Amino acid sequence: MQADRPVLVDFWATWCGPCKLIAPLLSALEKDYADALKIVKVEADPCPNLVEKYKVYGLPTIILFRDGKMAAVLFGSSLRAATGKADPLKYLG
Asked: For every one of its 93 residues, what pLDDT tens digit does the chain have, with 9 covering 90 and above?
């Protein structure tokens, strides 16, 4: 995954309660870091190949890519902790 800035990929599902809980956090990150971070949402159920490729074992799973490489993997509550940091991008890897 190549991009001019880090990419945060959110694997989620419509039936996933914790996914709904972190959605506002991701929206805030997207707004606050629009120039520094790209956020992509991937609905897991229709994308089993991506789920398998990135070893998504539970939802929500958040993967940060830097320079085309996986830099960090977070699960639901970990993202809540990351957004409480002064600079969540540093916390993410």
From this structure: 667 899 999 999 999 999 998 899 899 989 999 999 999 999 999 999 999 999 999 999 999 999 999 999 988 666 666 655 556 566 555
CATH code where residue 73 lies: 3.40.30.10
**Residue 70 burial by Cβ neighbours in a 10 Å radius (0-12, 13-18, 19+):** middle
Distance CA 67, CA 61 (A): 20
Q: Looking at the domain assignment, is residue 2 inside a domain? A: no
Domain for residue 17, yes or no? yes
Let me know if residue 25 belongs to a domain: yes
pTM: 0.82
Range of the domain at 71: 7-91
19 is annotated as an active-site residue: yes
- Catalytic residue (one of 19, 37, 56, 79): 19
